[in-house]
């Protein structure tokens, strides 16, 4: 199995459950409050660790109780943490999350130490980074760092997966470094600057990214599953029916499942099917990382759903 490396954010998630989201200016009472380790980068790393992958996390935490706790979390979930340093005199990243009674969420992120994952830091960790084969990126560390690191890795022939979240417009030169990009519909609309109302729109948006250099698009479609889109190919892979409680880390879990199967040498359709299962299971309990499944749980789930 190929080695994996996640380069990205580590946040502590502060989660409140509510009946309905408050309107602007409205004060409501929440139902509960809990603290969970999160951040898109660390979510993907922990999901991989739980699946049994050999995975390295690269990022930063702050000099606070959340940072110390996070190093413990990585260790307990089989994630190598020699790529993670504590940044002095700054907080760890935090995400303030509200989850309503439909399992929907909205999130406010404060970057903290994640904003200090700069090019110099990547250089300081390069010897350990370059040992991996497959790399997962997101957009919660500085864009300059993401582009620089992708280019340097691509020059070495490494495999690069980008989860383009949170949704934002990307510099055109980044696309040629990406082997697999995994947007949901909102993120794809942002990247292509095109409204998507049907499958034809989806294909047109995909072609815009192909023209910029993207090789393969894995379009996440929630409970419907995902689509594998290449320049002249389109295949839909159905999702799995689950009772969703919290969708907070579904996309991160999907990416981890996809990368895990890819590292095993599975064909694309099998990778996406496995990713759909991991993502689906992750929505069945509250919290980002707590609901992420082991490999055995995923295999049992997929066998039962056949």
TrEMBL record:
Residues 1-293 form the Carbohydrate kinase PfkB domain. It is an enzyme of class 2 (transferase). Catalyzes the phosphorylation of ribose at O-5 in a reaction requiring ATP and magnesium. The resulting D-ribose-5-phosphate can then be used either for sythesis of nucleotides, histidine, and tryptophan, or as a component of the pentose phosphate pathway. It is found in: Cytoplasm. Belongs to the carbohydrate kinase PfkB family. Ribokinase subfamily. The lineage of its organism: Bacteria, Bacillati, Bacillota, Clostridia, Eubacteriales. Its cofactor is Mg(2+). Activated by a monovalent cation that binds near, but not in, the active site. The most likely occupant of the site in vivo is potassium. Ion binding induces a conformational change that may alter substrate affinity. Requires a divalent cation, most likely magnesium in vivo, as an electrophilic catalyst to aid phosphoryl group transfer. It is the chelate of the metal and the nucleotide that is the actual substrate. The keyword Oxidoreductase does not apply. The keyword Magnesium applies. ATP binds at residues 184, 220-225, 251-252, 276. K(+) binds at residues 246, 248, 282, 285, 287. It comes from Clostridium gelidum. InterPro entries: Carboh/pur_kinase_PfkB_CS, PfkB_dom, Ribo/fructo_kinase, Ribokinase, Ribokinase-like. It catalyses: D-ribose + ATP = D-ribose 5-phosphate + ADP + H(+). The active site is at 252 (proton acceptor). This is Ribokinase. PROSITE patterns: PFKB_KINASES_1 (PS00583), PFKB_KINASES_2 (PS00584).
């Amino acid at each position: 199995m190929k080695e994996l490396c996640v380069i990205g954010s580590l946040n502590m998630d502060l989660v409140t459950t509510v009946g309905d989201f408050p309107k602007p200016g409205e004060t409501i009472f929440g139902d509960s409050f809990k603290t969970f380790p999160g951040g898109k980068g660390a979510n993907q790393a922990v999901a991989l660790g739980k699946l049994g992958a050999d995975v390295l996390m690269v990022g930063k935490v702050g000099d606070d109780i959340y940072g110390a706790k996070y190093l413990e979390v990585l260790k307990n979930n089989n994630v190598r943490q020699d790529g993670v340093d504590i940044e002095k005199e700054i907080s760890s990243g935090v995400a303030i999350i509200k989850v309503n009674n439909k399992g929907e969420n909205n999130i406010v992120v404060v970057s903290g130490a994640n904003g200090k994952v700069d090019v110099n830091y990547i250089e300081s960790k390069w010897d350990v980074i370059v040992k991996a084969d497959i790399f997962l990126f997101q957009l919660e560390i500085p864009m300059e760092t993401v582009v620089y690191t992708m280019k340097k890795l691509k020059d070495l022939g490494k495999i690069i997966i980008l989860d383009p979240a949170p949704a934002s417009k990307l510099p055109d030169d980044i696309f040629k470094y990406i082997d697999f990009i995994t947007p949901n519909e909102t993120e794809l609309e942002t990247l292509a600057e095109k409204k998507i109302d049907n499958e034809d729109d989806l294909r047109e948006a995909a072609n815009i990214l192909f023209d910029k250099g993207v090789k393969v698009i894995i379009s996440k479609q929630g409970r419907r599953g995902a689509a594998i889109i290449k320049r002249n190919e389109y295949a839909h892979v159905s999702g799995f029916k689950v009772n969703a409680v919290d969708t907070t880390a579904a996309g991160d879990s999907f990416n981890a499942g996809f990368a895990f199967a890819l590292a095993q040498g599975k064909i694309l359709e099998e990778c996406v099917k496995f990713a759909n299962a991991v993502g689906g299971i992750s929505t069945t309990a509250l919290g980002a990382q707590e609901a992420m499944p082991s490999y055995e749980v995923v295999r049992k789930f997929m066998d039962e759903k056949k």
